[in-house]
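User: I'm curious what two different proteins look like when written out as structure tokens. Can you demonstrate?

Assistant: Sure. I'll show them one after the other, since each token string lines up with its own sequence. Here's the first protein:
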Amino acid sequence: MQTTKILLVEDDRLIIENLTEFLKGEGFEVQYAEGQEKAMRLLEEQEFDLILLDVTLAQGNGYSACTQIKSRYEIPIIFLTALDDEFSVVTGLEMGADDYISKPFRPRELVSRMRTVLRRTGRNQKMLSCQDICVDPVKGITTKKGEEVFLSALEYRLLLVFFQHRGMVMSRSMLLEEIWDIAGEYVNDNTLTVYIKRLREKIEDNPQEPKIIKTVRGLGYKMEG
């Protein structure tokens, strides 16, 4: 499975550490640059799917970095900044930024905006796969051994959550938090058990001995990395 690669251009060490850890937990691969010069060097050496760019950098300037990046690469950019006045927003967007979020921001809101930009720009068109299960996130199609598997909206979201946190143990409370916002009905602990059972019946060769979504006793569930 290919991972979405993020370049974080930020000079605040605390933000770098906390945001990198959070985004990795969300399934992103993150590299950082503390200034414009290092950012451009990384872009020459590697391919990235999205750039998170701070406006005020100790080395260089976010606006000039945006102009330089956009002149050479087709990579979406989201500005991170403490400047929330209208002029700053308009300036950033006119320079080609794809979105703009002011500090302090909620990490989950940032991730939501990132996924929206990735979807809008077509940068998240990567197939997800585990054993003989494949998911096309753009078309919303799941297949098993090449044959389409029909999942409900909540089953599909649950499967994506496992892909996004592949290799991590997901507690039941973590899973409930992730699927709460798209559920058309109240999802409690018992309902979650039912949906995991249904999902396993559709994607596992033997639902009684799951190989894709495994139970980690006393902790939760995990999709193998």
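Here's a second, unrelated protein for contrast:
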Amino acid sequence: MWPDLISLCALTWTGVAIDRIWGEPRRWHPLVGFGRIAQQLERALNPDYRTAGSRGVVWPRLLGVVAWAGMVLLPTALAAYLLLNLPWQLAWLLHALLLWFALGARSLEEHIRPIAAALLAGDLAESRRLTARIVSRDLTQADTPAVARAAIESALENGNDAIFGALFWFAVAGGPGALAFRLANTLDAMWGYRTPRLLRFGWAAARIDDALNWLPARLTAAAYALCGNARAAWRCWQAQAPAWDSPNAGPVMASGAGSLQVLCGGAAFYHGALEARPPLGEGQPPQAQDVVRALNLVKRAVLLWLVLQSMLTLAVVVITR
């Protein structure tokens, strides 16, 4: 059974509540198995990525499209089939569980809050270690503002990837929509790098994730603006996001940093090389307490989403009666 508008709103609250209470599974997480299959599939279909010539350009991309379709569309189609054929009680439960599977709000907090705690305690070494688990930049020589900046950027960007993208696609297509988004986002994280091996094979995964995230990212940026300094968020979004490589991370992080009134972005070390990055936000370099503020901003934005969805649902019900 496919949920009506009222049921969809109730299921959204339910999925968010389940994630808040339980978080992600500690053992036997389905994404772990999914990731292993994706890794093996890439190795099987993309063994000779150095092949030259036109075949070396087109063929890996085509195989990447086929692999993406198999990994994302088949599970999504199976979920949709089950939901259309299960009794309504089980269908509703499956919708809620699929949203829980797609969400990562509690996991995000569990990764970011210990960083803030270490920074507040003055334990720079521990904060570097914890932050290095969630970002790819080199933090071995990072000072407190650099670690705080990395944590804030991760919190803001993953607020979209781990929360708002799933909420958006759940609102559009129920449990299968949230499932498809989470799987596509996972493949982008695995295959979407511009390395010699993955540049062509992962092209589809990266481009599709950009497309799926385009509208959710802008809704996330708008939510961040409404939950903080809206004028600064809008100003930074418009001025800084176009300079960012990612079409979706730019608006999200620029708006979030502007809303928080902290200065993020800027140069950072990746794989031993200093990479020049555009600035994000405005104000002073972030400190430990700003990491906590970033988490609270994400939480306020989630609550805003839920309240607005509920108000919209109520308005539609009243108008259509």
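A detail about the second structure: The longest strand covers residues 263-265.
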